[in-house]
């Protein structure tokens, strides 16, 4: 079961308070992480036995074993350095000197503090006399009773975990059931499940636990048959015991009934296989841990360690079915009575959405060959990401056709991450569509970890900002809202089917993660409610390290007016929509007063959001870059807007490159860039944007030829799902929170 681990300097490193000082037993008893006072009822004039744990106190009512005529008592013990005997009388505690009589009252109780484990049994002899000797050690020879004997076997046992977050498992830490945020904080955390442990079978029989198979030198302590222990929270049951425990005593590990769906606890069999003791697959909330063999060398003072591995099965989403903290108990039973209990609290790791400026690891896009869509966009993206060491993965269409959002991956999936002191791992959030879809995982590949949130949608209505110190060290989350900050633009009337909001279950989920504060953005005026359509971020030299990008119809109008001074031109030249030429003269656009009035109406919402970002995030006017954009009413919903040409705000930052949808603005024959592209490049340069600009022709994916109107999910960032590398600092538990 367990392996003996000899501590440097021997047992006194763990039990330093037990050490005798100058030949006398310590008067101050050891303070364990979980002190337990237990009442023990002894049989009068008999030999009794009890198994006790270091750090606990046995409370013996003397009136239960004292003869009626008794007026004083005397206590003798064989191991004065292992226990401390005191007497409680009239709420006053006094030391009980060995071999001296002490006055006995009806409420007198003997308190035995267990100070250190005993190599042999500790014998406590309690005798009485009918005379109150007042401290004399003279026993009345005529009224001497048969003494009551208590034989104690003192053991040390604890359930331990890394509670100070330094990667080492402390011995009986006083902070293992507490949580404190910050750099000087403490408290253990629960690692989340991975695809590798998804299908581990439950334990079928009671096996002795071991961290490696007996006699197999090929199995290391860290990885056993393909299981990486860094993917778990490691627990250790530590035990000091020098003899076999009686059969009536059992050690069990348990969780509360409402936590069994939130955690799995695994153990190693003697073959080195990982098996589930507690969790959803076993439906068990308590499991027996077999006693290990006692120490073979009574002088070695070894601590026997039993390793358990724990993993969270559910992220905390604010519902009663999920848990923010999971308690694991270690219980010592005498028959069916709990005589000792140790407990740890594990905080479920939050799901964190990385910054849109974080380095990409992989890009995922649906393979559109079957629909006849050009491969130009995919080829451009592949060349870009491969140049920076990332990869582009095309997903077969049949894997996404059953979902209503289909190829709009970012609408129903998002790549975030969870983090422990040992490992940071990608966690893909997947929105379910139908109840019978128990799993919609592995869409992006079996190498990733997945979790589902339920019948929700709208991951493209959430965006993380870059880190902003000191208030948003992991960034803030921009989320679509109908009434950001309790406000709504005065000229907006809600339709019958609001789109610029998140489902309640999604809102509860992101609020429950806590480490990325929520900032609401008004997007109900958009047909798709996409955050990237109204704000995005690019890396830039300066105090903040980034610039916020927003669309502007005023910039676009000024550029068109300036372009017309040198002659006529076309927007969207050479492009078609539903088989019809989509090009339009610049002069015709400028002459359409209703068109510009409509754009001013939509621009007011963009200006409203910019004020919200300045107020909530502390951004200044020079932190923004405005890019040309135009809007038109959605054919299916006249209240809401869709881009008139591909919206450049819905860009993607991929390492040192910024991928921007080609706007197809007006240009002269001798020009390489159109007027909108030229303006964007110049603005980025003047604002010291530290990335190369690359315009990608995404017209066919942007304006879906399979629909009668322009696509509701029209942004480039909606069709491409980016897996980004998590930031290294700070860790989420280091954030100062009230």
Automatic annotation (TrEMBL):
Residues covered by the Protein-arginine deiminase (PAD) central domain: 155-269
Residue intervals of the Protein-arginine deiminase C-terminal domain: 339-711
One Pfam family matching this protein: PAD
GO molecular function: calcium ion binding; protein-arginine deiminase activity
One annotated Gene Ontology cellular component of this protein: cytoplasm
InterPro entries: PAD, PAD_C, PAD_central_sf, PAD_N_sf, Prot_Arg_deaminase_cen_dom
SUPFAM superfamilies on file: Pentein, Peptidylarginine deiminase Pad4, middle domain
PANTHER family: PEPTIDYLARGININE DEIMINASE, PROTEIN-ARGININE DEIMINASE
Protein name as catalogued: Protein arginine deiminase-like 346
Organism: Saccoglossus kowalevskii (Acorn worm)
